[in-house]
Each structure stands twice: as C-alpha cells, then as structure tokens.
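Page header: ASSEMBLY MODEL / three components / 969 residues total.
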Amino acid sequence: MKQGEVLVDVRNLKKYFNMSMGFVKRQRPVLKAVDDVSFSIARGETLGLVGESGCGKTTLGRTLLRLYEPTAGKVFYRGQNIFAYNRGEMQRIRRKMQIIFQDPYASLNPRMTVSDIIGEPLDIHGLVRGDDRKERIHELLRLVGLNPEHAARFPHEFSGGQRQRIGIARALAVEPEFIICDEPISALDVSIQAQIVNMLEELQDNLGLTYLFIAHDLAMVKHISDRVAVMYMGKIVELSESRELYRHPLHPYSQALLSAVPVPDPQVAKGRQRIILEGDAPSPIDPPGGCRFRARCPRAKAVCQEQEPTLRNMGGGHQVACHLV
Amino acid sequence: MAALLEVKDLKVSFFIHAGEVQAVRGVSFTLDKGESLAIVGESGCGKSVTAQTIMRLIPTPPGRIMDGSVNFAGQDLVNQPEKGMQRVRGKDISMIFQDPMTSLNPTMTVGNQIAEVVRLHQKVDAAQARERALEMLRLVGLPNPERCYSQYPHEFSGGMRQRAIIAMALSCEPKLLIADEPTTALDVTIQAQILELMKSMQSRLDTAIILITHDLGIVAGLCHRVLVMYAGRVVESGKVEDIYYRPQHPYTWGLLKSVPRLDAESKRRLVPILGQPPDLIKPPAGCAFAPRCNHAMRVCLEHEPPAFPVEDGHQASCWLLHPHTAGVGAAAGLEVIS
Amino acid sequence: MEISRDLFQPIAQGREDAEAIVRPSTTYWQDAWRRLKQNKGAMAGLVIIILLTVMAIIGPWISPYTYDAQQLTAEGTNRLPDATHWFGTDDLGRDLFTRVWYGARISLLIGFVTALVQFLIGVTYGGISGYLGGWVDEIMMRVVEVLYAVPFLLYVVLLMVLMEPGLKTILIALGAVYWLPIARLVRGQVLSLKEQEYVLAARALGASPWRIIFRHLIPNSMGPILVYTTLAIPEAIFAEAWLSFLGLGVSAPIASWGSLISDGIASIRQYPFQLFFPAFFISLTILAFNIFGDGLRDALDPQLRK
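Prediction written out in full:
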C-alpha cells in the first residue's frame, strides 16, 4: 500500500436488494449484493477489484457513488461520510468522484452528439460557458486522443475504443480526483484494451488520479493495480498488494481464479496444472451460512459450514478471509 | 489425405445504405479431420463472417458471397441450395455462439431441444433420441442429467447453458464444430471448465474445431493451428508455436505485446496497437495494417503484400519478408519474443 | 511482380489517419427519414395526409359558397353533384363540397390537437412516474387505472352536461382520455431505459431528475412515442365521428365528418352521395394515417438500424 493520505475509506458497506415476488409471497427474499465490505484507498493509488459476474463488484462501485442507496455502512471521502450528505453536498462531491462504465455502447446517450455528451457535466456544474465551453470540449477530446473535428458526430459513428475514450473525457470534464473504472475494458478487443489501460495510467500520472479498477480480467488488474481485492458473493475474501497476491494467493478461490487465467504461451499452457472449480457460484439470494465459497471449495472442512470467516491480517497488509490459512 | 474443409479466396460483402462493406476480402485456408484451428482477430476483421459463410448463415440481403469456394468433405457449400444446407447444419457442421443466454429456446426443456436435433438428423425414434440426449448431457459433465433433461434454460446458469449448447452441437457427432467466441461471455473459472470440456470432447469424438476468438490466451492451450485475420484478410497463419514463438507479421506482434502476462515479474508498459482498424467500406490501398504499423514502408501504402512462406505451413503477408528488406523484420520480431 | 528497391524505405507515420472516420455523419432522424422514403406505402400515406390537410385549409376558400349558406328552394336542396356543386347539396341546400372540407378542418383539428395534448400530458406524466418510481409511481399508475375504469361514453356525456356541447368540450373529453395509454407507454420505456449506463453516468455527474427525464429518457423513447401519437390521430378523428354520430359532437351549423355522416345516413336511400363523400374522406384519412404510422414504426425501429 502506498504511504499517504487515505482518500476513500469504506466501512461495513452493505447493499441488499429486495426481490419482489408478487403479492402472494409476503416474505421477500433478499439479494445480498454487497455484504459488509470494508477497505480503503490511498490518494494516487489504484485498487483493483476482481471477481466473477454477480459477485457484487459493480454494485459496490455504484453504491460508493450513491447511484444505489446503501443499505448500511459508511463511505468516508477525505474523512467525511458522504452517505450523510444532503443533495447539495452530494452534488458538490460528484465533481470529485466519477465513474467510467463497462459498455461503450450503452454508456453514451445515442441521441446526443459527442460535444453535448462531454459538455453536459460542464453545464450541470456551470463550469465554463460560450466559446470557453467549446474550447474545453476540444481540449478534453485531445486529452483522450480523439480528433476535435468529430465533436459534432454521434456515438454510433465511433468504434468501441473511441467511445470508451469519449466516456473517459466526460468523466474528466469535472476534474475529478477519484474515478471508479467499472470494467472499462472488458467489452473491448485486446489491442484496444491496451490503448485504454495505457491512457488511464498516463492520466493517473499527469492528473494525480486515484482509481478503483473493477474487472474480471486478472492479468489486466494485476498490471494496473497497486493492491487487489478479490470478491466472492458480496464479500471481500482476499486483499493484498498486487504482486504479493499473484505470487502467494492464500484464499482457495483466489488460487482457482489465478490458475484459470489462460496464458498466451503454448508450452506453458500445455504443461500447466489448473485448479478447475466445480459448478457455478450459488445464488446470492439468501446465501447459506458459513463460508460462502465452501460448496465449490476443494478443501472445505466442517468449520467452514459453521462459521463465517472474517478478513484477518496475515502481515504486510495481506488480508484473507479463510479458516484454513 | 484430402482436407476436411477447404476455403478458397472467399469474398463476402454487405451492401448497406452507405455502400459496399467488404467484410471478407479473399480468405483461404484448409482444415484437416480432427484438427483445431483458431481464427484470431479484433471485432470487424471478418472472422465471424467467414464462419457464418461456411455455415451459409449470413443474412442475404444485405450480405452476399462475391467470390470463392467452400469445399466441405467433397461438397461445394457456396452453391448448395438451402435444403441441402439444412442437412449439413447440425449434422456435419455445428456452431456454438458467444451468448449462451440467447442460443437456447426458452420455451422448451433443454433435453427436448437436444432430442429434437437428434431426431432431425438421425433415423431414430423418440426413446432413442432421449437416450442420446441424456448421454450427451452426461458427456458434457452436467450433474444429474435426468433432472437437467426436463429443466428449462432459465433454470441453468451461464456455464451450464454453454455445456448444454455444446451437448446439442455435438449430439450428431459432427465432423466440424465452429465455436464463435464460446467463452467470451463467461467468467474465467467457467471459461476454464468449458475449454477443458472442448478439449476432451475433441479428443473423444475426433471433431475438427474452428475456434473464433480475439483472445490469444485461450488459443494457446487448445488449438493446433492459428489464422490471424485483419481487415477481412488472413495476415499470418501457422502452427500455434510458429505464431507465439516466431511471429512474422507486425499485427501479430501487436496482439502479443498488447496483453499483460500474469506470469510477468516486473511491470512493463503495454504496447498497444495505435489507431483503429480501417472501415471496410473503403479499404485502404496496399496493406490494410500499414496506417497502424510501426514498420510501414512506402511499398506498404501502394501494394498489397502477397503471402510470403516462412517455413513449412507458416506464412505471413508482410513486405518485411521481401528479400529487399532482409533483416529488418527479423530484428523487430526478436524484440517481441524477448 | 518486380518492385523497385527504393519503395522499401521506412516512412514516418502520421497517427491521426488511424483515428479518422471515413463514413459521412448521419443522425438517427436522417437515417429514419431515409428508411421512410424507401417505404412506398408510407410515403403514399404521407402524401395523402398532406393533400387532405391542404384541402382542409384551402377547400372552403376555392368554393364560392360558405359552409352554412342555405338555399331552401326546390332546385337548391339535395342536388346531385354537378359543375356548380361538385359534391351536391344537402337537405338545406348547403354546398357539400364546402361542408366536407370545412368538416375536414374540424376533424383534422380534433385529430392533431388531441394528439398534441395526449403527447404533452402523457409524456410528462409517464416520464415522471417511470423515473421517480417507488410509491410515486404506484400512486400515479393507480390514478391512470381509475381513469381507465370510467367508461368513455359516460364520461363524455357527463362533460356534455357540465359544459356546453361543442368543439371545446370534445377536445377536452378526448384529450383527457387519450393520454392514458401514452403515459403507460412512456413509463414502460423510461423504466427500461433508466438503468442504462448513460443515465447512471448522468446521475453520477449530478444531473437533476428533470434533466435526465427530458434530455436522456424522453429523446430515447421518441421513436415509439411518435408512432403511437401518429396512430392516435385517426383514432381521435374516429372517436369524434361517432360522438357526432350519436349527436354528442359539434352542433349545427358547424360540420365535422362525423356530423356529415350522421346527416347523410338519414337520406341514404334517396341521396347516397350525401353519405358517400364524408365517409370516403374519413376512411381515406384513417387509412393514410395507419399506413404512415406503420411505416414510421419500421423506420424508427432500432432493430433494423445498421
């Protein structure tokens, strides 16, 4: 963990969804998308958040920005609990915290031109007007490597990678300090992924940004992150400095995840022993007690059924939630 | 031995309001029985269109096969009437798609869907078809096949659905399975399961596989040969080791260098391929990759490079392999591997 | 092919070309218009609608008679169509050509105004209900259901009793009923669009609900809304026609197609042309709007968008 000021501090965050099942069933099942998650991010750091689909990583990101109202918990931004903010305070903090979305096709309004899309945050916060506004939009387009001449075009005229850069320019328009990157590259081709990742890294260096980088591509997360948190069914099961996690994964789930990543090298790929997990993740609706991973865990013991493991510090900031470590 | 599949100089265009999009611009390759071939390239490079053309699944109009031939086990598939194609599809050639959520009929049980395919192509009665479907469900490793048989697709998770789709695709023991991004929509742990399954099914049934993907990672462990496509053409082809250890085309270098390695010890900057692929409504003269290529020469902008043989079964379409440039390409290629 | 050695010189590349977009820029509406133009039926419908509208405006002018001038003489009443009275005259000797086009004004006015009213109320109501969701949505949708439950005829009769019968009352009655389905349609659209990432992005940027509804949600629901509105015009014209037919519509001497048909029915055996002309034009209008609306639906369908 980089030494320095803690920018974002998440304490016991929970986000449950009530599943409505019609009138007959009075008892509503609860989907525990994010269940008691705590972590912190230092200024200038990139925290990676990995997990499979449905593990709650996207919900976590959106709840941090109060795009979803949290069920419980606190999020401190520079020491202030933003969950206690009123509308006006929230409006101001939105200039500091931004988000980049996964789907470059769904994240841009198809009826607006690029210039309107990037100009919207400027209008909402009344940042610049008139000629300055146009100049600022062009500046932002150049910042993400797009041609300002294309400002009057519509999103569908751009390729996936270009659209993702429009989304980045929109987020940068308010000059944020903290950006949640919600799977910004998983919908893109590999050659374009590297463009976006490099751009995010350059922007971080030049503008001093702090990232929460959500992804399911472990190789990319390892590449970009200083620290990585592994999520499984709404819980963080392991959190550690990035290289340490990849060298010595402690949680059986992290181990399986890492071994499942394909390696672009025929000899290594053929000689490698994979830990193939059985089955799929169980439903996060009314999850079973004990360790949530136990049904798929190759090493599950009796204690895993009885007690829910909590994150324990294994030294050097390496935390893991497993009874067997 | 004659090849199972021979595609020769295939050209496919789509005619849309803005003009003719030349999606496939002269693709040739062969595939032997039981062999597995990967077609790699970014979206829009024509890899899926090539596969759909083999199956004759491109929508016409706007699509049209402009030129070329597809020869499958002695049959010409390009001029095959639709009736004849229906006998080939599902029986001799099967296809699995990227999205396991939309590839199954939501109103039929999984088992019945498989049994229906079996009855369509084989002269068996309902009981035998059911037996076969159950056997396939067992073969693809679905727990409790009897129960799965009578379940509906929505009761399955993504991984289970893709298994069921593979079971359906292989139920008539096709000679060729075309898998179009079969694991892109799946999580890594499920992806590993499905790749493992495809590998074991291939060795058991001796099915030839065409795997279409943009991820060089999953190719390395599964395929024998690789075809790298760019802007509707094959830019490099060869054995999997050739492509990974002795790549010759700058585009292949770019693909290899732009993905981070999990086993890399130190952090290095990724080397992306700059720019975007060309719009095939107006393909550039010369080499289509030249505008994004770090090694472009004047010739690249003017003349389309022919396929230069590198070694047995390995060839690349790049002017760097021309005798006039001896040495330049080799030096640049060495840098990639290190 | 022999290629000269000097072509094998490395060149410095301008990277900009690789980001260039070669296709000409087209907007959603340009695209839709292009598709609509290719649809012959829809274009025929549009031409008919335009011609009818033009005739409704100039028709009463080009005839030397006024819509209410009576000619109570033996040769003046119930005349067959001829060179002076192109569509003949009615039992009070009024020129039917003038009355048909005057009626077209009233019918088309009712159609367009009702469509506009239902569009404005329905889009706002449905947009707010769908976007805010929760208990606000529950209450707003229950109100819609209650209004739905009141039989249309009962409600028109009630309004007629309370207000004086006439054009204004009909417009109010139709406007008050016809926004209900469009409100539901818009609500459904908004519900499906509001989880889209561009809406989340706007919320993350601090956009107000008002801005999100009118800048993001409504513009993206515009396709189905327009189709629905187009198809609601003939429906309103038809509704007015049968209200007039029942005697609840515009009162004499003002004519609408409905009241003309109602008058024509009375003398169908002796003078069928008095029924034929208004009936023909109302059918033509409804047909034209329906064909055009269908074509519009195909043109705006994002599924066909390439």
